[in-house]
Amino acid sequence: MASRRLALNLAQGLRGRAGGLSVPSRRGLATPHNSPSSKTETTTLKNGLTVATQYSPYAQTSTVGMWIDAGSRAETDETNGTAHFLEHLAFKGTAKRTQQQLELEIENMGAHLNAYTSRENTVYFAKALNEDVPQCVDILQDILQNSKLEESAIERERDVILREAEEVEKQLEEVVFDHLHATAYQHQPLGRTILGPRENIRDITRTELSNYIKNNYTADRMVLVGAGGVPHQKLVEMAEKQFANLPSKAAVTSAYQLSKKKPDFIGSDVRIRDDTIPTANIAIAVEGVSWNDPDYFTALVTQAIVGNYDKALGNAPHQGNRLCGLVHKNDLATSYMSFSTSYSDTGLWGIYMVTDQLSSVDDLVHFALREWSRLSGNVTEAEVERAKAQLKASILLSLDGTTAVAEDIGRQIVTTGRRMNPAEIERIIDGITEKDVMDFANRKLWDQDIAISAVGSIEGLFDYSRVRADMSRNF
């Protein structure tokens, strides 16, 4: 579907509308602002649906959406791709609204309606002016509970999704990370792609789509989220009215049980050599941490120490990260990106590297893993403090806007059961020391098995055992 980011187009004239902030014509020096503290409120309805909001009394817009604890991980090998297929069909008409009526209704409000699917979640959300929130909630309940799933729409979207799969296959980063999951979690739900294999997309039937809704779109696995100018109690009242008939629970299927079993991380590699691609695209990862793990923020700080690099940026040689300086000085890579990807019970912590210096691929991998080894015994206070500052800024900047706040609330409550507010997160990050980073690196990086995914001109990438040996390098 469309991008997860929604454009926020607020004209200056909106300030004069109902709910707007009245600004005095004159103001002297800065004065304290005694607004109510922004906090996340939650209520669980009788049927098990959770309603969670962060109310901002001066916001003129709101984002409301449904976060569902089911994605591609809740599928089977035969039904892989169903969750994403359903996301496409959600906007193609309901028992109450045709596709055209749905589109006109959204257009006439000036609202945005969107959806996306991940490995563990499916999300449907809308962004609109505060006075249109009840209408948006009505639309959300309609597409979630009454989608028609017409055969003609299924056939049309089948072709659309196949074309989307072709586009994804052209994005090397997406390809590399899909293969990384597939090799790290072989023959397990987390190793499957979100779109599913082509044969599944061609064969998915209305029955499979209906069964996925019946088995996963239940109140105990759903969170209705509101962020912005919608008061908590108002959204609770809307939920009680619109989602009262939502099933409380579904029969526990073998697919659901398997999706909740902690996957085994498998040290392995997958390589797709294609010399027509002018670059080597390589991802290397160890088993990371889950959202709930006590090391979650330590993993992020450690990731920030390794940092990111892009040769095209003017600040590339001046970022302060040791690996950045070494890579730039020796022209080893076009770019690299460290990552810490978390799931409900596991994660992947690693680095994604792109280089057109094909004779230096082994050097690039060697120095990246040597940096990982260094983290186990030689981390300075200065680099930890810089990483912490970058992480805090990144988290706070990512919460700019009601949609971003709604995503944060929905993801946290679906995966952990509660939302940590930014102040709590900041306190935890502030408490991380260089000793914590070295302890994390000793347990998670030093001499640990790795998963490798490589695509492109990768002849210069040494065999798995040679790369694996660099995971315990003494200086």
Structural notes for this entry:
- Belongs to the peptidase M16 family.
- GO terms for molecular function: metal ion binding; metalloendopeptidase activity.
- Its main location: mitochondrion.
- It catalyses: Release of N-terminal transit peptides from precursor proteins imported into the mitochondrion, typically with Arg in position P2.
- With about 475 residues, the chain is an alpha+beta fold.
- It is built from 17 helices and 12 strands.
- It has helices spanning about 80-90, 100-110, 135-145, 150-170, 170-185, 200-205, 205-215, 230-240, 255-260, 295-305, 320-330, 360-375, 380-395, 400-415, 420-430, 435-445, 465-470; strands at about 40-45, 50-55, 60-70, 110-115, 120-130, 220-230, 270-275, 280-285, 310, 335-340, 345-355, 450-455.
- The protein has a 6-stranded mixed sheet, sandwiched between helices. Strands 7-12-8-11-10-9 form a 6-stranded mixed sheet, with helices on both faces.
- The protein is globular.
Quickly describe the structure:
By secondary structure, the chain is α+β, with helices and mostly antiparallel strands. It contains 17 helices and 12 strands. The strands form 2 sheets. A 6-stranded mixed β-sheet has the order 1-2-6-3-5-4, with helices on both faces.
Structural class: alpha+beta
Strand order of the largest sheet: 1-2-6-3-5-4
Q: Compute the separation of the termini in Å.
A: 48 Å
Shape: globular
| Average pLDDT, all residues | 89
**Major beta sheet, specifics?**
6 strands, mixed
Number of helices: 17
Query: What's the helical proportion of residues?
Result: 25-40%
Question: Radius of gyration in whole Å, from Cα?
Answer: 24 Å
Kindly estimate the percentage of residues that lie in beta strands according to DSSP.
15-25%
Number of strands: 12
Uncertain runs: 1-37
Following the backbone from N to C, one meets helices and strands in this order, namely: EEEHHEEHHHHHEHHEEHEHEEHHHHHEH
